[in-house]
Amino acid sequence: MAKKLPIIQLPQGRELRIRAIMTVGIVITVYMVVSTVQALWQNYSLDRELAHLRENNAELKLQNKYLQNLIAYRKTDSFKDKEARAKLNYQKPGEIVLIIPEDDTARFQEGNIKDQPIEETRHQPGNPEKWWDYFFG
Asked: Rounded to whole angstroms, how far apart are CA atoms 55 and 47?
């Protein structure tokens, strides 16, 4: 017959202490796991936000550079001269300004070209005709 192992029985107070220690240990372990997961999630969220802010920062730097270049261009004499000519009809001394009526320019716009009468063009001979004229013409 198999030999039975003796069962160790702890006194009632000692068993209660071990259960209490195990319960406290489990609670502490669960708390630490939850805290670690929260910290990892917060770290991930902050990394995403940081990447978004860096991207936004790069876009703002490009926009800032564009606006600085635009300001620098608008401070130049050539821009001032161009705007004075366009908006104020400014002209330099001795300069002759030609004004082209809108009707003439509208006639040559792409959409209106088809409406114009087609002028008769002289017949352009093809290559075979040119060779025929060259040898026998």
From this structure: 12
* Domain assignments of the chain as residue spans, ordered by start: 12-99
Residue 137 · residue 128 · CB < 8 Å: no
Contact in structure between 106 and 112 (CB atoms under 8 Å): yes
pTM (2 d.p.): 0.45
Contact 137, 129 (CB under 8 A): no
| Residue position matching structure tokens 């039975």 | 4
Tell me the pLDDT tens digit for each residue of 42-98: 999 999 999 999 999 999 999 999 999 999 999 999 999 889 888 888 888 888 877
What is the rounded distance in angstroms from the CA atom of residue 80 to the CA atom of residue 74?
7
- Cβ neighbors of 133 (< 8 A, separation 6 or more) are 125
Q: Would you state the structure tokens that stand for residue 91, as one six-digit string?
A: 């002209």
Distance CA 26, CA 23 (A): 5
In this structure, how many other beta carbons lie within 10 angstroms of the beta carbon of residue 22?
Answer: 10
**Rg of the chain (C-alpha set):** 46
Encoded tokens for 75: 């401070």
